[in-house]
Amino acid sequence: MIDEKRLVFLGDETLNPKLYDRVRNADYVMHEAFCLDSEENIFHAYEKNHSTAKSASKVMNDLEVMNLILYHTEESHGTDRKRLYTEEAQEKFKGNVYVPDDLEIIEL
């Protein structure tokens, strides 16, 4: 028997609430996180229809997603980017959080 997993790739915008039922209980969700919540006033994620790491992780936690992959992050934090985005997401998300570098492979 094949261990099937469901991967949901969300586009370059905040998740539309009309799609919540399609995302609910997914094994993996790829969600953009344009900036950290504390920097929203600098990068204006919401004006651009984007999410922060905190806002994306809260919605995904409410939808009982198991693994959250955050991408499309701003790059001003250098080598601290992964740690900062992961820490912020883990404030609201109870599952696993991944913040990959470009071309990084994540084994599902």
What does this structure look like?
It is a single chain. The protein is α/β, with parallel strands linked by helices. The protein has a single domain (7-98), classed as Ribonuclease Z/Hydroxyacylglutathione hydrolase-like (Metallo-beta-lactamase, Chain A, 4-Layer Sandwich). The chain has four helices and four strands. The protein has helices at 20-23, 40-43, 53-62, 81-90, and strands spanning 7-9, 28-32, 67-71, 96-98. It has a four-stranded parallel beta sheet, with helices on one face. Strand 1, helix 1 and strand 2 form a beta-alpha-beta unit. Helix 3 packs across helix 4. The longest helix is centred in the middle third of the chain and has 10 residues, at 53-62. It starts with 6 loop residues before the first strand and ends in a 10-residue tail after the last strand.
Task: List key phrases describing it.
108 residues; alpha/beta; Metallo-beta-lactamase, Chain A; four-stranded parallel beta sheet; 4 helices; 26% helix; 15% strand
SSE blueprint:
Elements: E1 7-9, H1 20-23, E2 28-32, H2 40-43, H3 53-62, E3 67-71, H4 81-90, E4 96-98
Parallel strand pairs: 1-2, 2-3, 3-4
Helix pairs in contact: 3-4
